[in-house]
């Protein structure tokens, strides 16, 4: 009975199996555990919200907050934006 023709890739695999020096190619590994992401983004987001609440409620009576002025809004929104960026790392 005649043998069927073998594809090039299949022939290379057969040669690799036969040779003792052939090692399987290392595939890139996925990043490690991402269990840190949910607590981190929740904490950072809540800190941003808390910063804004404290600024609006008691910002004039806290010395460093009154010195920052409207930069407090940027700080609070920046915390919430950072939480969003961190949340994109979650699988």
TrEMBL record:
It holds the Pfam family CrgA. One of its GO terms (cellular component) is plasma membrane. It is found in: Cell membrane. The keyword Phosphoprotein does not apply. GO terms for biological process: cell division. The keyword Membrane applies. Keywords: Cell cycle, Cell division, Cell membrane, Membrane, Transmembrane, Transmembrane helix. Residues 1-34 are annotated as: Disordered. Residues 1-24 have a biased composition (Basic and acidic residues). It is a multi-pass membrane protein. The chain crosses the membrane at residues 36-58, 70-90. InterPro entries: CrgA. Belongs to the CrgA family. Involved in cell division. This is Cell division protein CrgA.
């Amino acid at each position: 009975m005649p043998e069927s023709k073998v594809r090039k890739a299949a022939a290379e695999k057969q040669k690799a199996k036969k040779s003792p020096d052939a090692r399987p190619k290392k595939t890139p590994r996925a990043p490690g555990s991402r269990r840190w992401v949910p607590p981190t983004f929740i904490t950072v987001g809540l800190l941003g919200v808390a910063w804004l609440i404290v600024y609006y409620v008691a910002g004039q009576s806290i010395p460093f907050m009154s010195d920052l002025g409207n930069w407090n809004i940027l700080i609070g929104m920046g915390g919430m934006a950072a939480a969003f960026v961190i949340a994109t790392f979650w699988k």
